[in-house]
Amino acid sequence: MVETIFDLPVEKQIFYAVLGFSWTVYLWEAYLSYRQRRIYKSTTHVPQELGKIMDSETFEKSRLYQLDKSNFSFWSGLYSETEGTLILLLGGIPFLWGVAGSVTTRLGFSPEYEITQSLVFLTLATLFSALTGLPWSLYNTFVIEEKHGFNQQTLGFFLKDAVKKFVVTQCILLPVTSLLLYIIKIGGDYFFIYAWLFTLAVSLVLVTIYADYIAPLFDKFTPLPEGELKTDIEAMAKSISFPLTKVYVVEGSKRSSHSNAYFYGFFKNKRIVLFDTLLEDYSPLNKSGEPQPEPPESDDTSSEAKAKPKNKKQGCNNPEILAVLGHELGHWKLGHTVKNIVISQMNSFLCFSLFAALIGRKELFVAFGFDDSQPTLIGLMIIFQFIFSPYNELLSFCLTVLSRRFEFQADAFARGMGKASELYSALIKLNKDNLGFPVADWLFSMWHYSHPPLLERLRALGNVKQD
């Protein structure tokens, strides 16, 4: 008689179901990537529809860049999936929990100090993740990004940055985790409500302090100088009642020549942040061959960034920047930010509620090698990371679809402000600067793209002609 998975003990069924679903997702992602790689390999000439907006040299550069990224993603994804599988099969999680217990015992803590052991476990787990991920990050930065002209970092800057990120992460993660575990333990029957409220408060605090206190640890933020651009930004913000208080330029060029812009803040305290690589008049990457003024004093990390710019003309002119910001402010005016927060918190409350219903199931712990104990942190990991994985995949896809809808709406908002032509040209420039490949497999883009493909956005903006 052939034994099936349904004849196994329930804990074995759980284990193999989790492992099977993980590989199913990986194979699905690998199939989608294969479809997109086929597009990169076969589309070697600029399609007729793109002839007026993309030259053949840029098209070929973007094709080769995206092909390299796709190949790298395949191998790094295969490694990650294999590593995760081996950790589960070889009992890596209970082993690391035992190591954390030995460390806490040597520090003089008894086994009753579960939260202390949890913090040691978390530190060891994040350290392991950082070390195993380091070679892949190094290759991505100093081979792929370097090869295609985006990397602006030295090895020393990169390593110092990685250590700083790890330390800052631990300074936030460990206190928050210890308080969350404590709330779960003393919260009684309604602990999931208190845990949800706590995580809500933490997320709001982090959003509030991130740009003022955390981001400046890694990048230099300077106020946008007085001038036409700042005046126009303030006037545009005032025209839609956006409560703008400050506009910053962040020195993104010391890391990469990729560009970005965003706003942050709550209520009447909104700030806009522009990457210097987005600004045609400010990007250091545009100053090659020009007489250079004496550089202003900067922190010691900035001096470690590469001095030589790698790209020629980059960024957007002032009207195009205003169009990009019109799109970003459209997200605020149309309530996209609030909607995303509401969806996130509804999801968080649902997950904590289900966690409360499942945390007492011993078979969940036994399935992953915890026969004699049921640590709360391990329960959080098992339920949120493994048991909820099918739900997380479905939610992620739905949010991707919603994000694309929001992007079209924000583009339409900028068009309504009379900035369709400028946004049209800005999208083309940004696609060129970031070497975005404008041809996508329909299934790959449907599953992965949080922003619509370039052509779809240009069509939606209308028949706007470039100057």
Automatic annotation (TrEMBL):
Domain CAAX prenyl protease 1 N-terminal: 36-220
Catalytic activity line of the entry: Hydrolyzes the peptide bond -P2-(S-farnesyl or geranylgeranyl)C-P1'-P2'-P3'-COOH where P1' and P2' are amino acids with aliphatic side chains and P3' is any C-terminal residue
Subcellular location: Endoplasmic reticulum membrane
InterPro entries for the chain: CAXX_Prtase_1, Peptidase_M48, Peptidase_M48_N
Domain Peptidase M48 stretches: 224-462
RNA-binding found in the keyword field: no
Active-site residues from the entry: 328, 411
Protein name: CAAX prenyl protease
Single GO biological process annotation from the record: CAAX-box protein processing
Bilayer topology: Multi-pass membrane protein
GO terms for MF: metal ion binding; metalloendopeptidase activity
Function of the molecule: Proteolytically removes the C-terminal three residues of farnesylated proteins.
